[in-house]
C-alpha cells in the first residue's frame, strides 16, 4: 500500500468513526480505531483531524470532557452527504456479487 493510499484509507476510517459517533474528541477517535484493530498513533490521527478540518470535512468545537478542554469533531454537511451516498452505493462481495452496503458495515 502506498503512503497516499494508506492516508486515504485512514481518512475514510476516521470519517466513519466520527459519522458513527456523531461528535467525538481526538482521543475517542484514536481509541475507537485501536479497538477495531487499526495500528495508529496520536501522531497520525491528530494531524489528520486538522487536515480534514482544513479541507472542510470536519467542524470542531472546544468542550470540557472529563475535566479537560478538548476539540470535539463532527462531520460537516458535505462529509455527511458523501457518507450517506457511500452507504447507498453497491459494493462487491468477495464472490463478485454486488450488494448494497448497510450503515453498520461502512
Automatic annotation (TrEMBL):
TM spans (from-to): none
The organism's place on the tree of life at top rank: Bacteria
Pfam families: PadR (PF03551)
Gene3D superfamilies the record matches: Winged helix-like DNA-binding domain superfamily/Winged helix DNA-binding domain
Domain Transcription regulator PadR N-terminal: 14-81
Stretches with biased composition (Low complexity): 93-106
Signal peptide: none
Region Disordered: start-end pairs: 81-106
Entry protein name: PadR family transcriptional regulator
Classification lineage: Bacteria, Bacillati, Actinomycetota, Actinomycetes, Kitasatosporales
Amino acid at each position: 500500500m502506498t503512503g497516499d493510499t494508506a492516508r486515504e484509507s485512514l481518512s475514510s476510517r476516521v470519517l466513519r468513526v466520527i459519522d458513527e459517533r456523531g461528535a467525538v474528541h481526538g482521543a475517542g477517535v484514536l481509541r475507537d480505531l485501536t479497538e477495531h484493530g487499526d495500528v495508529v498513533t496520536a501522531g497520525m490521527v491528530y494531524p489528520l483531524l486538522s487536515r480534514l478540518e482544513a479541507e472542510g470535512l470536519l467542524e470542531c468545537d472546544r468542550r470540557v470532557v472529563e475535566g479537560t478542554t478538548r476539540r470535539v469533531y463532527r462531520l460537516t454537511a458535505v462529509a455527511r452527504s458523501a457518507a450517506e451516498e457511500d452507504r447507498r452505493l453497491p459494493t462487491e462481495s468477495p464472490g463478485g456479487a454486488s450488494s448494497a452496503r448497510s450503515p453498520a458495515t461502512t
